[in-house]
Amino acid sequence: MNPNLSIYDNLGGAEGVRTLVEAFYPKVQKHPLLAPLFPEDIRPVMEKQYMFLSQFFGGPALFSEAHGHPMMRARHMKFPITEERAEAWLECMAGALDEIGVEEPLRSFVVERLSGPAYHFVNTPG
């Protein structure tokens, strides 16, 4: 991990973020707590996640350019997100980071960076 670079650049830029998203969503689709929250056609969700993570990790503002301000908590309010689901989401992300070969300390840094938003989306008691 190069501390002088953004997470986006440390992950390998557009290609790295795309690879992460493509490793992440099969795990989400197989997870019993998460799969019911997602549509069968996951491609549009994957594209939005790619755009959001690119921006969130310090790359180009793809999400804002296409969809306006992220307002991610508001966008997720229609889904029952429990603390257990937030943890499951982070576990899937950690697994995807492992799968694509992201090493420490970058792996832990990415998971920690995503923990804030993941728990911020919690809107339903366990």
UniProtKB/TrEMBL annotation:
Classification via Gene3D superfamilies: Globins
Top-level taxonomic group: Bacteria
PANTHER family associated with the record: TWO-ON-TWO HEMOGLOBIN-3
Protein's UniProt keywords contain Cell membrane: no
TM spans (from-to): none
Species annotation: Paenibacillus zeirhizosphaerae
Family in the record: Belongs to the truncated hemoglobin family. Group II subfamily.
Pfam families: Bac_globin
UniProt-recorded name of the protein: Globin
